[in-house]
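Reopening this one. Same input as before:
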Amino acid sequence: MAAMTLPPGPVALGPRELGRPVAGWRLRMYTVIFEADTRAGRAFDFTLIAMILASVAVVVLDSMAAVHAQHADLLLALEWFFTLAFTVEYVARLACVRHPLRYARSALGIIDLLAILPTYLAVLVPGLHALIDVRVLRLLRIFRLFKLGAYVSEFAALQRRWRHRGARSWSSWPSSCWS
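Same output, byte for byte:
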């Protein structure tokens, strides 16, 4: 049987190709990080979406001269907080799959790496500070979390539920999504 080789460029991978662990802490972590059909998985995805949006807001605010002039230290601290949090998440993704190199070479793995790399590069190579603006790539990570194609029927069901309940639906939205 011939050994399977990886294609030269980024690839789209599913759970089977990444190597879903069979047991132990790696399986528990994998279930939370890669599968959104559990309470912990949904909470992880929701937290990650909130952090991505907040980090993009920090990037946008930092690009505004007046805001940067008044809040440069706070924006820098927030940038490092998000970079470190996303680094921990990236390392956790690599640690919980059986084939970490496959994940790292996948399109989503490359986007995750590109979301954190500019901050580190700006420190290591001071002339690359302009590269820090590609932090907006973090926004691309949301598309993975939303998994829009997979949830079309679920969105339709929620829409029907909201229409049926009327105005009350918006006030109960969080509990109706995660109950």
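So the earlier flakiness isn't reproducible anymore. For the record, The longest helix spans residues 65-96.
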